[in-house]
Amino acid sequence: MMQNIDMESATQVIIFIVALAFSAGFLAIVIVLVPAIRELTALLADLQKTSGEVRELVEQAKNISSNVEGKLEGIDSIVSNTKTIATGVNRALKAANFNIAGKPELLALIPALVLGYKAISRLKRRNNERQ
């Protein structure tokens, strides 16, 4: 009987040690997981706040984008009109350059025309003074 009691008490001790090990392991898991769960909860709250801020920023970016697109359309028409004007000015300058610079004798006539105009105006002035 004595051996039977020793076996039973040895079995009980082993079961107690195994139960104690499981309990200690569970307690360790709880001690580790509770702060981690709290951290995850705090991170989730921050994530929700950040997500709301990102939505607001995306909405603002859409508004800015549509505003810029509207202004770009206005600038596009200005650039188109400027290009048309520049083309017209370019054609006019080419025509003027060809007509005047292409014929140097016309440039030589300018001083002669000025001198002639001055001479005629002097003659008219003298005729007016005599009368």
Description:
The chain has 131 residues and is mainly α. It has one domain. 97% of the residues lie in helices and 0% in strands. The chain has two helices and no strands.
- Provide the domain count: 1
Give me the strand/helix succession.
Answer: HH
Structural class: mainly alpha
Strand coverage percent: under 5%
**Rg calculated over all Cα atoms:** 51 Å
Topology:
Layout: H1 2-101, H2 104-130
How would you describe this structure in keywords?
131 residues, mainly alpha, 2 helices, 97% helix
Question: What's the quick description here?
Answer:
This protein has helices at residues 2-101, 104-130.
